[in-house]
Amino acid sequence: MSDFLIIGGGVIGMMTALQLADAGQRVRILERGACGREASWAGGGIVSPLYPWRYPTSISELSRWSEGAYPTLALRLLEETGIDPEYRQKGLLYLSVEDDDAALAWARRLGKPLERVSSAFVREKEPRAGVDGEQGALWMPTLGSVRNPRLGQALRARLAAMPGVTLSEHQDVKGFVERDGQVIGVKTSQGEYQAERIVLCAGAWTATLLATLGIPLPIRPVKGQMIAYQAPKGLIERVVLKSGRYVIPRGDGLLLVGSTLEEAGFDKATDEHARASLEQSAEEIVPALASYPVAHHWAGLRPGSPGGVPFIGALPNQQRLYINAGHYRNGLVLAPASTHLLVDTLLDRPPLIDPAPFAPGAERPAV
């Protein structure tokens, strides 16, 4: 029996396992496919909610802590695995923000660097950004991004080398093992596993699994399609955001553009309508992209939740079953803090922040 059994090998599940293993615990991860290949792979890797001032304060508290954790985590994983998660801290330019007064008020409350800048400032920072006339922008100099597929690879490699961790991939969880009304393990395609504590980090599939216990949870899949261009290195250097869409540069010239929001169940198919819409957004943000072909087009499933507030903590009336899911568009953003908060609970440590807003059963904002 493992001390901890984690269902789901995305970034949330793997960071949970890493922190537990660092604390001397034995951990097994059960993953239906390969670790780090679902929403953790499909996202963009911006280490901030797109418009953080539009989220509840609880999300700001998690994201602020996570933002500070990523530089150290990226360096650690590079040293331990040789795989570079490519954390880049070059700031973010917000173009065409309608509620900039609310944004600046939020930044003042949190002591967050955010300022109005002129179109000349934008052109100096990003000469190829599509600035409308003399319209200014908002500038957040501390924002970073991470290359999430490589973050997943690095986390998996580190966990595979840790003696207290077992990675059980390609094992689909079919249901739970119960005794006297309490969950004590899971049933998989390759047998049963039991553990002292079970942590459900299954992303968009979380509610489906809990339904087998008769536990309703408002987490649903929300499809997001993205495209990428292989552009010359340095075409743009910073994340640029406009009208809810963004362009994210990688160090080798790859430029990610995202993303759609689609209520399509568990369908991950891509389509030409979404591609054309993303191309249009890309060319509005960086007009020079009209000269380059789209190199990649893909889709992933986010775990949508009310208000985008994740469920973190013990499930009601269960002594061994815990959850960390429902991060919606901010799984990568919130992963270091949300996993730290759950591990605090699991190991009876003082919590990182107040866990009450994230508790399963807590009242959440309307969608």
TrEMBL record:
Q: Does the keyword Oxidoreductase apply?
A: yes
Q: Which UniProt keywords apply?
A: Oxidoreductase, Thiamine biosynthesis
EC number(s) in its UniProt entry? 1.4.3.19
Question: What InterPro entries does the database record attribute to this sequence?
Answer: FAD-dep_OxRdtase, FAD/NAD-bd_sf, Gly_oxidase_ThiO
Name the Pfam families for this protein: DAO
List the GO molecular function terms.
Answer: glycine oxidase activity
Q: In which pathway does it act?
A: Cofactor biosynthesis; thiamine diphosphate biosynthesis
- EC class: oxidoreductase
Superkingdom of origin? Bacteria
Extract the Gene3D superfamilies matched here: D-Amino Acid Oxidase, subunit A, domain 2, FAD/NAD(P)-binding domain
Provide the leader sequence positions: none
The UniProt record lists the FAD dependent oxidoreductase domain at 3-344
Q: What is this protein called?
A: Glycine oxidase ThiO
Give the source species.
Answer: Vreelandella malpeensis
Give the organism's phylogenetic lineage. Answer: Bacteria, Pseudomonadati, Pseudomonadota, Gammaproteobacteria, Oceanospirillales
